[in-house]
Specification:
Chain lengths: ~190, ~170
């Protein structure tokens, strides 16, 4: 329902604002553009998505994901107590978290979706606590090296584009920390 | 260092393949099988993306984002954020490319080493495209009752924005 409210609100607001500002034709054109852009975006990520789900399958079959999982397991078991017994899902979560840490966004998504399927199995149609935690962990950036932003700064003549790293880590840690705390707190009071 | 980041992705793929081959995994068969599963995932993502991007494009074209920025300017001052950062904060959760566009423009206008340029960069580096991620994840598993995921994610985003301004003040005086 949340997405229904947000989506309908966005569309209604655009139409009202567009008409009031005399930008009706632009809004009309934008609707078609947005839908087309969604398909273009899907196509542009299709190759990387398939490649990384393929690599994930190789990692899984070779036992590499399991080793990564063991490294992150103590922390992740505390974040995902419901999935602690599900080996395959925990492997996918840990691989998703490590891909996010490395800033491999295109790799992290298919791994995260694999984890999401495992976490969603217990309650079809409704987000479980584990699924909410996974989504929040993925909406809060935990990227160690923000390469895109650094390249934008370098393009603007910055001599030390990576000097923002400590500030990024500080902000990321606080943001993820609050997201996790919010999940834990909401899970106690939220009714389905 | 630059070469390291350029080569990171191929090195990971190559490393995984070598390791798996060494462990006697049929690497190519596994890769192709996994890639097929990726295509299934993609097909489930497309409908969510069509819905979301249509709304985002309409919102951008209508001027509603600029209007909101004007309305919220007084609140920004109280939070220790420049009002110039508001458009970035508004588009950041909805569109990654739009946020990068707005952020790049701020960095270009105020300079990459200005407090504002740095804050914009840290905001971009320490937050994610929340609504895109939410749409992709819940769309892929067919969940429509998202419960507290969006409020919790927005708490994290807001913290990231406030922390970005604070961290730049701490790290750069």
């Amino acid at each position: 329902m949340t997405m229904t409210v947000i989506w309908t609100g966005m569309v209604a607001l655009s139409i009202l604002c567009g008409l009031a500002a005399g930008r009706g034709p632009e809004v009309a054109a934008a609707a078609a553009e947005g839908a087309a852009a969604a398909v273009e975006l899907s196509l542009s990520i299709a190759g990387m998505l398939c490649l990384w789900t393929g690599v994930m399958e190789v990692m899984r079959q070779s036992g590499l994901a399991g080793q990564l999982s063991r490294l992150l397991a103590p922390l992740l078991r505390r974040l995902f107590p419901q999935a602690a017994g599900d080996r395959r899902t925990m492997d996918a979560i840990s691989a998703n978290v490590s891909a996010n840490l490395l800033g491999l966004g295109n790799a992290a998504t298919p791994l995260g979706l694999e984890a999401a399927r495992g976490l969603a199995r217990s309650s079809p149609g409704t987000a479980s606590d584990g699924l909410c935690m996974l989504v929040v962990c993925n909406t809060a950036s935990i990227q160690l090296i923000p390469t895109t932003v650094a390249s934008v700064r370098a393009a603007q003549g910055c001599q030390t584009p990576f000097d923002i790293l400590p500030a990024v880590w500080l902000a990321s840690a606080l943001s993820v920390g609050v997201g996790i705390l919010a999940c834990k707190a909401f899970s106690k009071v939220w009714r389905a | 260092m630059d070469l390291f980041f350029t080569m990171l992705v191929p090195l990971i793929i190559g490393g995984v393949a070598l390791y798996a081959a060494f462990r006697r995994v049929d690497v190519y068969a596994a890769l192709v099988r996994g890639a097929g599963a990726g295509l299934d995932t993609l097909l489930r993502i497309v409908p969510s993306l069509v819905g979301l991007l249509t709304a985002v494009y309409m919102l951008r074209a209508s001027g509603a984002l600029d209007l909101l920025a004007g309305l919220l300017a007084p609140v920004m001052g109280r939070l220790g954020l420049s009002p110039e950062l508001l458009p970035l904060m508004l588009v950041r959760p909805v569109s990654g490319s739009a946020a990068l566009g707005v952020g790049s423009e701020l960095i270009a206008t105020y300079g990459p080493d200005s407090a504002l340029g740095r804050t914009a960069a840290v905001m971009l580096g320490s937050t994610e495209t929340t609504f895109y991620t939410v749409a992709v994840y819940f769309g892929a598993v067919g969940v429509t009752k998202t419960r507290y995921a969006i409020p919790a994610a927005l708490c994290a985003d807001l913290t990231g924005f406030l922390a970005a301004a604070w961290a730049v003040r701490v790290c750069f005086g």
